[in-house]
Amino acid sequence: MTMNLKQIVESLGLRVLVGGDLLDRMVSGGYVSDMLSDVLANGTVDCLWITRQSHQNVIAVASLLGLAGVILVNCPEPAPALVEKAKEEGVALLMYEGTTFELVGTMYEEGLRGCKRA
Amino acid sequence: MVDNGVLDVAYPVVGGDFGQAGEGASKLKRVLQQIGLAPSMVRRIAVASYEAELNIVIHAFSGMLKAKITASKVEVWAEDQGPGIPNVELAMTEGYSTAPDHIRALGFGAGLGLPNIRRNADAMEITTALGTGTTVYMAFSNVVRKEQ
User: Fold this and answer.
1) A81 contacts B26? CB cut-off 8 A
2) Contact criterion met (CB below 8 Å) for A18 and A86
């Protein structure tokens, strides 16, 4: 089952901080981690990364890996520098108001699965 | 600089500067994309270089991310002036890290950086001297170009 960002944004009521023009992007799966090296090791192209880390290095990692985007959960309002960096790198930056458990559960119900490294 | 089909690039890395961290790997990635390497190869090199660059930011005072690109391989050196690594074998162990808590809070220091480099590079070598610094060498052979 594949979905694009727009479907995910709409079904979960995500706030789009950056990437209103990137929502056509197809999403291959999801990955949850607050450790950047873990994502570097296991994240795959077009995967959606769910994290509460909200510093600029998150965008650097997402961009290097070619992730579909980042969903920030349960974290403070991101600093302007993060938003700027996401714009520069063309990384969709989304925010969810509930908990990670609910977010991932809903995404799974919608048919999305964990991304798998080839 | 291109000379006889060899492209050399070098980007400075500043220890402790998490705002700029990853800029070198990001620039190298763009160069590799422009040259026309296959996306999977660009990704491997970019991930390994990012990990090596972050190690400099986390552990060292300053350093350089250098790369030499030829038709047959890409070599990357992450050289730093820093404390050196007392036990390389231990440092290569997945899960082992000496990163302080404030760096772990940022999501670094999982002890996955060097293993990630080893997995992505075709060859890897660490040269280190205590109190002087460390060089992580990575080679990526069998350069694959994007299909035209």
Assistant:
1) no
2) yes
What was the ipTM of the complex prediction? 0.87
Give me the residue label for tokens 């694009």: A4
pLDDT in tens, A22-73: 999 999 999 999 999 999 999 999 999 999 999 999 999 999 999 999 999 9
Sign of CA dihedral B1, A66, A81, A34: negative
Whether the pLDDT of residue B4 is over 80: the answer is no
Name which of B76, B112, B117 to mutate to probe chain A: the one with the most chain A Cβ atoms within 10 A of its Cβ.
B112
Residue B112's nearest CA partner among A33, A52, A39 is A39
Mark yes or no for CB contact A57/B25 under 8 Å. no
Angle of helix B23-35 relative to helix B39-59, nearest 10 degrees, comes to 160
Whether B51 and chain A come into contact, CB under 8 Å, resolves to: yes
- The domains found in chain A, sorted by start residue, are 3-109 (3.40.1390.20)
Q: What is the mean pLDDT of residues B48-58?
A: 97
Q: Given this model, what pLDDT does residue B145 score?
A: 79
Q: What tokens were used for A116?
A: 């798998």
Determine which of A31, A52, A64 to mutate to test the interface with B (most B C-beta atoms within 10 Å): A64
pLDDT score recorded for residue B76: 98
User: What is the DSSP pairing of strand A92-96 with strand B2-3?
Assistant: unpaired
> What is the pTM (predicted TM-score) of this model?
0.92
pLDDT tens-place string over residues B74-85: 999 999 999 999
User: Which sign does the torsion angle of CA A77, A83, A89, A93 carry?
Assistant: positive
Q: How many CB atoms are located within 10 Å of the residue A79 CB?
A: 12
